[in-house]
Amino acid sequence: MRLCELTVKEIADGIRAKRFSAEDAVKACLSRMGTCDETVNACITVTGDRALERAKAIDARIASGEDAGPLAGVPYVVKDNFCTRGVRTTCGSKMLENWAPTYDATAIRCLDESGAIMLAKTNLDEFAMGSSTETSIFGPTRNPRDLDRVPGGSSGGSAAAVAAGYAPLALGSDTGGSVRQPSAFCGVQGMKPSYGQISRFGVVGYASSLDQVSPIARSVEDLACALEVLARPDPNDTTCDAYGRPKFTDALSLPDLKGKRIGVFEGFESEKMDKDLYETLQKTANLCKDAGAAVEPMDLPLAVRYGVATYYVTALADASSKLACFDGMRYGTHVKGEHLFDMYTNTRTQGFGEEVRRRIILGACLLTEGFYQNYYAPALKVRTKMIEEFDDLFSRFDAYLLPASPSMPYKIGMKEEDPTRLYLGDIFTVPISLGGLPGISLNMGFTPNGGLPLSVQLVGPRYGDAELLGIAAVIERATGRPQIASLGEVA
Amino acid sequence: MKMSVDRDITLKMARAAQLRIEPEEVDAMTESINELLSICSLVGELDCTDTPDFVWRMRKLPSRREDEPGEWADRERFKSEAPTIEGDFFRVPRISSEG
Asked: What is the pLDDT along chain A (491 residues), one digit of tens a residue?
């Protein structure tokens, strides 16, 4: 097996046991990236020289008998909305096309301290607003499982990079499904942890009350390894919980699902879903039964009826406030104007793309007198009611299963235009974000004809991340973890 | 209560957000806002009389740093990010077009 096909755990163990070096691992991943990325376009900025330098330093530390960290030498890539000191952080936008931050995001610092090595910054929908990775100024990313299709989004570059074998680990950010949906589309494992689990400091956010740093990998074990170094208190982020985290990898020893109560979400029109994906959900439910779980159908009436509306009000209002900081004054694009407000308007109008401008204006509207009282204020209360509904659900279930997406990845340039499927897509992901719940998009194999990924989503109670990883690991053991995409003639 | 916007409100919203909409884009933007307002009006139909506003519950609040003066990262690095600098200052255009 080539080094670029190994998991996080296999690479970390191999380097620690001196079967190969960090430099070997980094070179193998960079080589794979060099061969394939002209076609896939998952990466915006490759930091190859810096990565090789760091790999040599890690190897020297290991050679001298030093403990270089739990992820020493493990290559990773990161969505280009994480601040990286001295490395440009574009958010896929003209607004930040050439901006190099002066500090690292806490998540980057955690991975650096663990010995992991950053190889590249990955493509995304502009400012993480989208679900296909087609709105970046750096062009669309292609899905490594089928190059004519989108990788999903907004963390499409990160998911595509892991699927293509550029790195065993990627970071993305998930606001309403931006890691779970691309992970499903690219046939990899992606986890949105509980809100408050990982610091958001240094992540250029979309919606502060929803965004969560989220790892993508090719095994559940790797997600747990990543969470173990990423999930910790951070005084720089007041929304990052200071509680003592469990050891996430300990949960992976769960032998079966005996005694677990698993719900299967049935509050949707199954006939509107892709048939293969619906069957995958039923097969996974049966698999859980076979593993000893008590499996029952369940529904979330409030989340189904009000989830999408509450999400849009919350996310767009958040986005409108959050993106107000891009004024052309302190960093990023600057377009001259006759006076201050003229300069603001010129900068923001030319710096933001069409979709971002649209969402900011919608958000501004929702926060205006009259609209605020009729939309934003009620949405805050509905969100509380939805969380109460989740609390009630998790008094009866340990986890629940639902699709990660209602449809297979669509062709590049062909927007998903069926409104029912779009609505279903949102229903499957956004309520989980509104509730701050952990959700794992789990690959369940591929279609026999065409090799498109099949997936489900597994959701647990807030702060039940470790237990959720344990259940996901049992399911993964029964189905096998995904391998890297062959990429045919490209590779 | 379901609300809607017209062209004038759309233009006001854009101005509030420091964005310019070209005249030919205003109708499409107005339609887009109204579609969303229609979907989002659902949030008003649920009786939430005694429901508190949403707030994240945390298991343990993060500790706060001492309220003491401290040094920011070095001044030159921040200045290096700015599009226009004059001496030690960010260069800001005049506030008003008048006078």
From this structure: 899 999 999 999 999 999 999 999 999 999 999 999 999 999 999 999 999 999 999 999 999 999 999 999 999 999 999 999 999 999 999 999 999 998 999 999 999 999 999 999 999 999 999 999 999 999 999 999 999 999 999 999 999 999 999 999 999 999 999 999 999 999 999 999 999 999 999 999 899 999 999 999 999 999 999 999 999 999 999 999 999 999 999 999 999 999 999 999 998 888 889 999 999 999 999 999 999 999 999 999 999 999 999 999 999 999 999 999 999 988 899 999 989 999 999 999 999 999 999 999 999 999 999 999 999 999 999 999 999 999 999 999 999 999 999 999 999 988 766 666 666 788 999 999 999 999 999 999 999 987 999 999 999 999 999 999 999 999 999 999 999 999 987 87
Inter-chain touch A365–B39, beta carbons under 8 Å: no
Interface of B with A in 28-57 (CB under 8 A): 29, 32-33, 36-37, 39-44, 46, 48, 51-54, 56
Instruction: From A274, A284, A310, A243, select the one nearest A399 (Cα to Cα).
Output: A284
* Domain edges within chain B: 7-44
Asked whether A240 and A233 are in contact (CB, 8 A), the reply is: yes
Residues 6+ apart with CB under 8 A from A427: A267, A268, A303, A304, A307, A308
Q: What type of residue is A489?
A: E
Name the pTM for this structure.
0.97
Integer Cα distance of A11 and A430 in angstroms: 34
- Mutation for B interface: A95, A346, A375, A417, most B CBs within 10 A: A375
Distance of residue A209 Cα from the nearest chain B Cα, in angstroms: 8
Residue spans of the domains in chain A: they are: 3-298+388-490
Q: If one looks up domain A3-298+388-490 in CATH, what number appears?
A: 3.90.1300.10
Q: Nearest by CB to A339, from B51, B59, B94: name it.
A: B94
- Asked if A309 lies within 8 A of B48 by C-beta distance, the reply is no
Residue A382 tokens read as 């509905």
